[in-house]
Design a protein that fits this description.
The protein is α+β, with helices and mostly antiparallel strands and 209 residues long. A seven-stranded mixed sheet has the order 1-2-3-4-5-7-6. The longest helix is centred in the first third of the chain and has 18 residues. The chain binds coenzyme A (COA).
Length: 209
Amino acid sequence: MPIQFDLARPGSLSPDEWRGIQTIAHDAYGEELKHRTQGEIDYLTAWTEPERFYESHVHPNSEVGKRYNPDQSYTRPRMALAIDGNDTIGFGYAANNVSGTPLQRTIKLLGTSKRYLWLREFAVQSDYQRRGIATHLARMLLMSGSIHQPATAYIWPDEIPFLAAPLRKAGFKPTGEQKVAIYGPDSDPVRQVRMLSKSVGATVTKLAR
Ligand SMILES: CC(C)(COP(=O)(O)OP(=O)(O)OC[C@H]1O[C@@H](n2cnc3c(N)ncnc32)[C@H](O)[C@@H]1OP(=O)(O)O)[C@@H](O)C(=O)NCCC(=O)NCCS
């Protein structure tokens, strides 16, 4: 049976279903980041804190001031799922993101030029990778946005080097970087690069080629 795809609201999934999604992320990152310890993978994917993983996806603003900068707001969180038979085998997660003072954020939410479609996270089970599943999940999430919206994605080029190339091909360009302790407060911070596409519409067109 071919892989099925579905769009879902994060809040429509139960905590148990979210634990399944978290397992996909935990296992996929574990396979990808073999140079990292199990403890580092567990921290990256909040493995020992399933309630926090659930909360941070269903209510992404719960992480503002913690994992995310204090001047950010997230709206319309949504996810795309890849399903084989009865099993979810991959997911992508996105939300709208505005930044600034509370008043600036309110104004930005009304327009599209500073309301970013933030592609937060993707994971596909290792035995299903390299079949275009993440690309299709990204396409679905982008198409759920407004065509004039810019899109952002954050990558860790020293950890997962191959992601820059498909993002560049899709029209994303690096616009800044910072160091982030993704493996825990006592770990060495890694480079995190912000990638920006000027418009969702242009990127969807490029993905279609
Ligand atoms: C990143 C990830 C989601 C990609 O899933 P996928 O379904 O295999 O991706 P696609 O098949 O759509 O690949 C798209 C392109 O990405 C690049 N790519 C994907 N996996 C790659 C790999 N292992 N090595 C090199 N390039 C790779 C290729 O350019 C690929 O296009 P191609 O197959 O035509 O050459 C998957 O590898 C994964 O779950 N990794 C662990 C978690 C992670 O790194 N998430 C991303 C950060 S949030």
